[in-house]
Elongation factor Ts (Spiroplasma tabanidicola), 289 residues
Amino acid sequence: MAVSPQQIKELREITSAGMMDCKKALEATNGVIDDAIIWLRENGLVKAAKKSDRIAAEGVAFAKTNGKRGIVFEVNSETDFVSKNEKFMSLIKEIGDALLAASAKTLEEALEVKLSSGTVKEACISATATIGEKIELRRFVSVDGDSIAVYNHANNRISVLLQFEGDISQEDAYDVCMHVAAMAPKYLSRDEVPQDFKDQEMHIIKENTDLTGKPENIAKGILEGKLSKKLAEVTLLDQGFVKDEKQTVGNFIKSKKATLKSMYRFEVGEGIEKVITDFAAEVAAQLKG
């Protein structure tokens, strides 16, 4: 039967479940609110909604390419135990296959990509209910074109997606991917480094450099040299290549008659403020409830 927006709104306010889940529940129970609440509980969706404000800072990062399109994404969970869960890893594979085959460009579009049962967003909600931890697709990037390379670290926590221009071999491109994974450059080139980052680093350098008695031009050269060294540490093209430290990554790529257009490195949980949970207090609170 058709359900009204007002019914969906009422059910959402009671259960905090997703709009589409409320719609399904009402359709399955002929619009009876009390029965719909029971339906949501039986399907674990109220439980999933209650976990929606939990912090998920663990999980899996994954990159994949078919040669003409490349993707990298991160799916988070609350604990690292979930990354060893067979159902969770099956979900990661299904999401990866679906996102690679789709044309999604943004996270919002990725969440609406169809899987075998519902959208990516709905599958994460369902996994939250089944596994018992908050599961969410946190971020997603895609690139289209030629010369795409990816790398996934064995621990499933670091993934890299690179796009080149030129005839660089897959082996050489993969080596650059591994370098990015290992050395974690913040920026592709110095042109991408924000001015506020440079200003902050220069302030730190000045505070920790004794320039007593140095002429102004000499002092300026010392400071600029130290800043240049710092920028070389955080920009990929200026870093010493891990497979041949005699040359920079930029020179290595150039020697292959190629250029690097884009770099994406996802590490699970980066940028998320983790919360240390007092499990004893949590259990006590649940018992009181």
About this structure: Residues 17 and 46 are 6 Å apart (CA to CA). DSSP finds twelve helices and eight strands in the chain. The mean pLDDT is 88.
